[in-house]
């Protein structure tokens, strides 16, 4: 009897290992396809692709599957690996993955996560929400059960959505500066040092007490020091576009 139980256990473990192995390489293959499709269908002179970007935020490291920086704005592409048919909407906390034989699996609405990514990039690059476009890309699915916003997409349709943005929002100099900023600040191998912890604490103060974005124009807020007047030496929280936007307050 003990031998039988041991054999059954080994079979179960082997099957579980196979499923995990297959899932890992399927996701890797999907990631490769997304990268190749983006490079093939989007002109590299107009769109700069960055993959697996990890940035430090006030609540830890935040990963971006794909950042596409262009004169038409910054696109945040978040990959979701599922199958079957997806059912849900932006207001529902839980979405459903409908599989064969009427089987279903529930998962969390990705809207909040991708919106947090948008807020991070707006604050990090000093952009407004009108200049940053979230894209939730489902790989491996057949489609959506109900009509969805165009930012939720599957297959190669994300390319169509990105191409649909034709208004020029950023200059060549801005794009160059943004790419340099992300490359300089992205974390390698998920490591956080002492200076990162100091920066993280400053971001936490900004985010929790004041918010990351200017309440007037939506640009990033940053801490500055006053050099003259009655408050000389005091710290202020000022809009990054100051003095064009004069939103500020003492910290």
Q: What would your notes on this structure say?
A:
The chain has 251 residues and is of the alpha+beta class. The protein folds into 2 domains: 2-185, no CATH class; 194-250, no CATH class. Helices cover 37% and strands 30% of the residues. The chain has helices at residues 2-41, 111-125, 157-163, 172-185, 194-210, and strands spanning 47-57, 60-70, 73-87, 94-98, 104-108, 132-144, 152-154, 221-225, 235-239, 248-250. Strands 1, 2, 3, 4, 5, 6 and 7 form a 7-stranded mixed β-sheet that branches. A 3-stranded antiparallel β-sheet has the order 8-9-10, with no helix packed on it. It is globular, with a radius of gyration of 22 Å.
What does this entry show, briefly?
With 251 residues, the protein is α+β, with helices and mostly antiparallel strands. The protein contains 5 helices and 10 strands; from the N terminus they run αβββββαββαααβββ. Mean pLDDT is 78; it is low at 14-28.
Describe the structure using short key phrases:
2 domains; three-stranded antiparallel β-sheet; 251 residues; alpha+beta; globular; seven-stranded mixed β-sheet
Please describe the topology of this protein.
Blueprint: H1 2-41, E1 47-57, E2 60-70, E3 73-87, E4 94-98, E5 104-108, H2 111-125, E6 132-144, E7 152-154, H3 157-163, H4 172-185, H5 194-210, E8 221-225, E9 235-239, E10 248-250
């Amino acid at each position: 009897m003990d031998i039988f139980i041991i054999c059954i256990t080994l079979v179960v473990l082997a099957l579980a290992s196979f499923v995990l192995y297959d899932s890992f390489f399927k996701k890797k293959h999907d990631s490769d396809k997304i990268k190749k499709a983006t490079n093939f269908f989007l002109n590299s002179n107009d769109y700069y692709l960055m993959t697996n970007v990890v940035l430090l935020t006030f609540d830890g490291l935040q990963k971006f599957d794909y950042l596409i920086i262009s004169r038409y704005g910054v696109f945040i592409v978040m990959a979701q690996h599922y199958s079957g048919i997806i059912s849900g909407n932006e207001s529902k906390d839980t979405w459903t993955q409908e599989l064969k034989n009427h089987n279903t699996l529930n998962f969390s609405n990705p809207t909040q996560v991708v919106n947090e990514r948008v807020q991070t990039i707006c604050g990090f690059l000093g952009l407004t929400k009108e200049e940053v476009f979230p894209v939730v890309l489902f790989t491996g699915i057949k489609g959506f059960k109900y009509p969805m916003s165009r930012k939720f997409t599957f297959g190669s349709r994300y390319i169509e959505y990105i191409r649909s943005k034709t208004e020029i929002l950023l200059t060549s100099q801005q794009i160059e500066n943004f790419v340099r900023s992300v490359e300089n600040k992205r974390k390698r191998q998920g490591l956080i040092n002492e200076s990162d912890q100091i920066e993280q604490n400053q971001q936490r103060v900004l985010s929790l007490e004041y918010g990351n974005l200017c309440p007037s124009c939506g640009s990033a807020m940053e801490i500055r020091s006053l050099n003259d007047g009655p408050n000389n030496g005091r710290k202020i929280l000022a809009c990054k576009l100051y003095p064009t936007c004069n939103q500020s307050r003492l910290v």
